[in-house]
Amino acid sequence: MTDTTEQPAKAGTDDRTHWKGLSKGTVGLLGGVVIGVSTIAPAYTLSGSLGPTASAVGDHLPAILLVGFVPMLLVAIGYRQLNKAMPDSGTTFTWVSRAFGPWVGWMGSWCLLAATILVLSNLAGIAVDFFYLAISQISGQEWIAGLTRNVPVNIVTCLAFMAAAAWISYRGMEATKTFQYVLVSLQVVVLLWFSVAAFSQVASGAAFDGAAVSLEWFNPFGVDSFSAFAAGVSLSVFVYWGWDVVVTMNEESRGTTTTPGKAAIVTILVVVTLYTLVSVATLSFSGVSTGELGLGNPDIQGNVFAALAGPVMGPFAVLMSLAVLSSSASSLQSTMISPARTMLAMGHYGALPAKYARVSPVHHTPGYATVVAVVIASVFYAVMRVLSENVLWDTITTLGMMVCFYYGVTALACVWYFRREAASSPGSLVTKLVAPLLGGILLLVFFFQTAWDSMDPAYGSGSQIGGVGLVFVLGVAVFVLGAVAMVVQYLREPGFFRRRFATTEYSA
Predict the structure, then answer these.
(1) pLDDT tens readout for residues 109-122
(2) Taking a C-beta distance cutoff of 8 angstroms, is the pair 297, 304 a contact?
(3) Looking at residue 332, what is its pLDDT?
(4) Which CATH architecture has domain 4-502?
(5) What spatial distance separates the first Cα and last Cα of the chain, rounded to whole Å?
């Protein structure tokens, strides 16, 4: 790959002109929403989250998914306001640095990078599982599905998926959009098909534990205990993660200051509608018992759709396998957008070595940063898959804390950045202060609650170190590693950390 290098920004320069060489005007509102939905990966996410969430909150599953939607919407409103004032591909990194200084901005972006890069390994691993399952179902050869448990085959296939996703990302937004339109359309159509089929079975009396839809399912206050409520909310918040990718494409969007914010909010609204429909249909069909197809059955919770697709969709069950495969594969590719552009911005402003600011002169994409992201994710998956699957999956669980932290800090950055003008009108008061303040506080509360809960060895895989849960230990390790990397970068290139960011460099 041949890249050009953008020079790091110098203190005192006019940051309003910090175009980084990305392709301008290639993403519209529809393209942004499709990419945002693909990053959230509804088919894959629902398959792995419906069971655990139902186990925590019972038949109040739809209510908890709606509650988890609220802080996401509040934070998205803050993102939209920040993007209007400072359209920059660095998003969390740039905005938090300007609001709270370079040290906090660096750590906020570190959490974003840790979450997005490491989750790539999880997405690729799921794609491998469903790849061989789909081939097995189509060919009728059951032994093929077992290939995913063959470690060498699993790793080689996983690395191939990552390489393909990186290649599409490197080719640019046009290639990305074409790829995403096909795969996102497939998973949405299949999820709608599944929902209609489930309701039809309930109506005909053929459902496993059929029940009519009840308004009580939408009452979050009906959950038995606060601990169950908190556990359910933590799970539901995580299922919305990924919408912010549309804002990181602001420098490549048509309508740089307006389109990304609109796309972020539309993405969340589309996803919450889809989640509500599918969760109600699944709950109506299966119930929450521990029976064979009940959502409370621990044997099916890791992959609800694998168990329910056959009974609900009959001979078309293979379409659900293809939908989850397309969901994880499309998310694998679109998730690369965010860390690559964050590292590009960090290299551009001098928070990382200048090589991270390299942009392909042909495709106008952050080539070097994209390669770094996929290499780290690939090495991590290969090593952990061989050494310990518990560490692999507990690391993925840990990422929930990273997400809550960087979303929460970014939302509060909006409050601080606009603090002097928020009261200028009722609309500004709501969108620049009240909404992001509530969203940021809620997510930081979830961050600390999850950190506290994860100290229990029973959290995650059940692994522990010295009586402390492995999820908590890994979370602390991620933060410590980030702090060490930040200090090393300070010692190598102290200019960024000594820089005073002036909020007046952008026009609100």
Answers:
(1) 999 999 888 888 87
(2) no
(3) 87
(4) Up-down Bundle (1.20)
(5) 37
Query: CA-to-CA distance for 436 and 267, rounded, in angstroms?
Result: 18
DSSP string, 202-230: HHHT-SSS-----GGGG-GGGSS-HHHHH
What distance separates the 2 farthest-apart alpha carbons in the chain?
71
Half-sphere exposure of 344 (CA within 13 A, CB side): 33
Closest among 39, 44, 60 to 279, alpha carbons compared: 60
Please spell the DSSP secondary structure of 123-158, one letter per residue. HHHHHHHHHHHHHHHHHT-HHHHGGGGSHHHHHHHH
| 42-70 tens-digit pLDDT | 998 888 788 888 887 889 999 989 988 99
Beta bridge partners of 4: 359
Taking phi over 0 as left and psi of -120 to 50 as alpha, with beta for the rest, 58 belongs to left
* Distance, CA of 149 to chain centre: 26
Beta bridge partners of 400: none
- Locate 217 and state its tokens: 């399912």
Give the residues across from 464 on adjacent strands: 469
Q: Which residues contact 5 (CB under 8 A, 6 or more apart)?
A: 354, 355, 357, 358, 359
C-alpha dist (Å) from residue 245 to 104, 265, 267, 393: 21, 12, 10, 23
**CA-closest candidate to residue 337, choices 154, 131, 182, 119:** 119
DSSP string, 362-384: TT-S-HHHHHHHHHHHHHHHHHH
Distances from the Cα of 49 to the Cαs of 114, 160, 248, 348, in angstroms?
A: 21, 26, 26, 38
pTM of the model: 0.88
CA distance 115 to 396: 8
Residue (of 465, 487, 485) closest to 474 by Cα position: 465
Contact status, residue 411 vs residue 95, Cβ threshold 8 Å: no
Q: Say which residue the tokens 């209007």 belong to.
A: 84
Domain regions of the chain by residue span? 4-502
Tokens, residue 170: 């490197």
Alpha helices in 287-434 (DSSP H): 304-313, 318-335, 337-349, 367-387, 389-417, 426-429
Question: How far apart (Å, rounded) are the C-alpha atoms in residues 506 and 508?
Answer: 6
> Which range has the worst mean pLDDT, 3-7, 85-89, 288-292, 476-480?
3-7
Separation CA 5–CA 336 (nearest Å): 20
- Main-chain phi, psi angles of 464, to 5 degrees: -150, 160
Q: What angle do CA 100, 101, 107 make, to 5 degrees?
A: 90
The CA-CA-CA angle for residues 190, 327, 258, to 5°, reads: 100
